[in-house]
Amino acid sequence: MRTISIFILVLFLGGLGCANDAATEKRAEKAIPVPVAQVSQVETAYLLGKFDPTKHPSFVAVGKPYTDKPGMYLHQETFEAFKKMFAAAQKDKINLKIISSTRTFQQQKQIWEGKWTRFAKDAPGAEQRARKILEYSAMPGTSRHHWGTDIDLNDLNNPAFKKGGKYASTYDWLQQHASAFGFCQPYTAKGPERPQGYEEERWHWSYTPLAGDLLSQYLQTIKNEMITGFQGAETATKIDAVTHFVAGINQNCKQK
Ligand SMILES: [Zn+2]
Asked: How many angstroms is it from 174 CA to the middle of ligand 1?
């Protein structure tokens, strides 16, 4: 069922200004099924964040009270689940605020290239610099934020969520209750269970029922050589960004 809905989502995407849309529209008019190769091209664009969430039929705008920031979009299934979790948290006097949601390839590219420039002095070598950025930021095309399934909550600092921190009780609440709403923390502390990937991010939560499927599709479809179009992209293959970072998540967040 999930695969079917993602398939439909991908088909929708074909008519929304991605690659080959003229050809897709022509086929849609004649009601000829889209060939598999073309579907996978559109699907690839979605997985890499190369689409416009403001125009995507499966995406919805997120406003107050869920976020104070403009321009926040999520996949509608993620948002429905989040609203339920938000309401339950409110009852327990916990305020969940979305501070980042869907980010496109272009938005991730801005974040990445900003750090690429800032870290030039401390990390002159390309691979060294990429690894420094990868402590907390994804390469464009490899972020879970592309999928509309992942959110950052309240604060981008781990200490705020630890004992004595402003959001310690928020984090305790999420650890106890988020899974009941389908959410999990993909970037838990690194250790034997999660030896590779980004550093711990207590603010980043993912809607597993959707993201689990998308991760499986991503790992079947996207190769390191396809991660291109930004400064330092040549390091993706050397670092094996797909295996070590996209797949380097908390096992509980993977498809069951
Ligand atoms: Zn995040």
From this structure: 15
Residue 100 CA, ligand 1 centroid: distance in Å: 7
CA-wise closest residue to 127 among 16, 235, 7, 241: 235
Task: Name which of 2, 116, 103, 9 is nearest 48 in CA terms.
Answer: 103
pTM here?
0.85
Residue 20 CB neighbours (<10 A): 15
For 124-174, strand residue ranges (E) read 150-153
Beta-bridge mates of residue 74: 60
Confidence of residue 2 (pLDDT cuts 50, 70, 90): low
CA distance 130 to 124: 10
Could you give the domains of the chain?
Answer: 75-253 (3.30.1380.10)
How far apart are alpha carbons 45 and 226 in whole angstroms?
11
Ligand 1 centroid to 20 CA: how many Å? 31
Per-residue confidence (pLDDT) for residue 10, from 0 to 100: 47
